[in-house]
C-alpha cells in the first residue's frame, strides 16, 4: 500500500512476540487421548501441550482423565517434569502448572525465529511466481503483526512493513487466521463495538458482521480485503497451521486492484501457506 519511495532491500524478518497468542483459542486436538502404548517421551509432550492449553493450573486427576493415562504414570511423569522445572506443583491448590523451563523454551523459540526462517524461501518463491509483494503475519490479540516482507521488483512500498500492527478484522491475513479459530475465541477477542477499530470508514462494525465475513472466508477457502487497509490495493491470504490445525501465521499477497484477480492469486497463496505449514510440522 503506497507510501514514500525507498530503495529496494533484502527481505526483512521480525521476531514473533512470545505473547502473540489468542486468548481462549483451543486447537481441535486439545484432548486427543494418549494410549498406554505411546512411548514415555510422547506422553511427556502430551502433558506439556495439555497444560499449555489450559486457562490455569490443573489437577493431576484431570490430566490423567483427559489424556487417558494411568494415574500412576501421570504422577510419575509430573514428578519428572517438576524436577526438570517444566512443571510446578502448587500444593495449596493440589494442581500443576507450567514451570520456568517451559517459559525458557518459549523465549528460545522467539530468539531462534524458526517460523520466519522456514517461511522465507516459500514466500520468495510466491513473489517470483505472481509478480506481486507478499508478507507473513502473526495474530497478536486483535491485531496482526507483520514479521516478513518480500517485495516484488518494481512494486510500491506497502504499509505492511515488518513490525507494523494493523487491526486483524480489516486485513486479509487477520481474517484468514480469525476464520481458522473457534467461534468462541473470536467472540472473546471482539466482545463489543469498541473492539472494532476502523480505517477509511470500512470493514465490519459489529461481531455479527465479522461472523458473516469469516463464514464467507471459510466457504471460499481463503481471505481477502479490497481497499480496507489502503484504498486502491487489495490482498488475498491463507492461514499457516500447526500440528493441531491452529493458525500460527498467515501468508498474503497485496496488489493494486487494477492489476490483480483474487481468484487467480488465491491458489498460489494457498499452496504457499500449505508448504509453510508442512515445514513447521503442521497441517496444510
From TrEMBL:
<dbReference type="InterPro" id="IPR036388">
    <property type="entry name" value="WH-like_DNA-bd_sf"/>
</dbReference>
<dbReference type="GO" id="GO:0003677">
    <property type="term" value="F:DNA binding"/>
</dbReference>
<protein>
    <submittedName>
        <fullName>Transcriptional regulator, IclR family</fullName>
    </submittedName>
</protein>
<keyword id="KW-0804">Transcription</keyword>
<feature type="domain" description="HTH iclR-type">
    <location>
        <begin position="38"/>
        <end position="100"/>
    </location>
</feature>
<dbReference type="InterPro" id="IPR011991">
    <property type="entry name" value="ArsR-like_HTH"/>
</dbReference>
<dbReference type="InterPro" id="IPR005471">
    <property type="entry name" value="Tscrpt_reg_IclR_N"/>
</dbReference>
<dbReference type="InterPro" id="IPR050707">
    <property type="entry name" value="HTH_MetabolicPath_Reg"/>
</dbReference>
<dbReference type="InterPro" id="IPR029016">
    <property type="entry name" value="GAF-like_dom_sf"/>
</dbReference>
<keyword id="KW-0805">Transcription regulation</keyword>
<dbReference type="GO" id="GO:0003700">
    <property type="term" value="F:DNA-binding transcription factor activity"/>
</dbReference>
<dbReference type="InterPro" id="IPR036390">
    <property type="entry name" value="WH_DNA-bd_sf"/>
</dbReference>
<dbReference type="GO" id="GO:0045892">
    <property type="term" value="P:negative regulation of DNA-templated transcription"/>
</dbReference>
<feature type="domain" description="IclR-ED">
    <location>
        <begin position="101"/>
        <end position="282"/>
    </location>
</feature>
<keyword id="KW-0238">DNA-binding</keyword>
<dbReference type="Pfam" id="PF09339">
    <property type="entry name" value="HTH_IclR"/>
</dbReference>
<dbReference type="Pfam" id="PF01614">
    <property type="entry name" value="IclR_C"/>
</dbReference>
<dbReference type="InterPro" id="IPR014757">
    <property type="entry name" value="Tscrpt_reg_IclR_C"/>
</dbReference>
Amino acid at each position: 500500500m503506497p507510501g514514500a519511495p525507498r530503495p529496494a532491500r533484502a527481505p526483512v524478518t521480525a521476531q514473533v512476540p512470545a505473547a502473540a497468542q489468542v486468548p481462549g483459542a483451543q486447537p481441535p486436538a486439545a484432548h486427543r487421548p494418549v494410549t498406554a502404548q505411546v512411548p514415555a517421551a510422547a506422553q511427556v509432550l502430551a502433558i506439556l501441550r495439555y497444560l499449555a492449553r489450559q486457562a490455569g493450573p490443573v489437577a493431576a486427576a484431570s490430566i490423567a482423565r483427559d489424556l487417558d493415562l494411568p494415574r500412576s504414570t501421570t504422577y510419575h511423569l509430573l514428578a519428572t517434569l517438576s524436577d526438570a522445572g517444566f512443571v510446578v506443583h502448587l500444593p495449596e491448590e493440589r494442581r500443576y502448572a507450567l514451570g520456568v523451563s517451559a517459559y525458557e523454551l518459549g523465549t528460545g523459540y522467539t530468539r531462534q525465529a524458526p517460523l520466519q526462517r522456514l517461511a522465507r524461501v516459500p514466500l520468495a518463491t510466491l513473489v517470483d511466481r505472481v509478480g506481486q509483494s507478499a508478507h507473513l503475519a502473526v495474530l497478536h490479540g486483535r491485531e496482526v503483526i507483520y514479521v516478513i516482507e518480500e517485495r516484488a521488483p518494481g512494486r510500491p512500498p506497502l504499509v505492511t512493513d515488518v513490525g507494523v500492527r494493523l487491526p486483524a478484522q480489516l486485513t486479509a491475513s487477520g481474517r484468514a487466521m480469525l476464520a481458522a479459530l473457534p467461534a468462541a475465541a473470536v467472540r472473546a477477542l471482539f466482545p463489543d463495538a469498541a473492539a472494532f477499530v476502523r480505517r477509511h470508514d470500512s470493514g465490519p462494525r459489529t461481531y455479527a458482521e465479522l461472523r458473516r465475513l469469516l463464514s464467507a472466508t471459510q466457504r471460499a477457502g481463503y481471505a481477502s480485503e479490497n481497499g480496507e487497509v489502503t484504498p486502491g490495493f487489495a490482498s488475498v491470504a491463507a492461514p499457516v497451521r500447526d500440528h493441531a490445525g491452529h493458525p500460527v501465521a498467515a501468508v498474503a499477497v497485496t496488489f493494486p486492484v487494477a492489476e490483480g484477480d483474487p481468484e487467480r492469486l488465491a491458489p498460489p497463496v494457498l499452496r504457499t501457506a500449505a508448504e509453510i505449514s508442512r515445514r513447521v510440522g503442521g497441517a496444510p
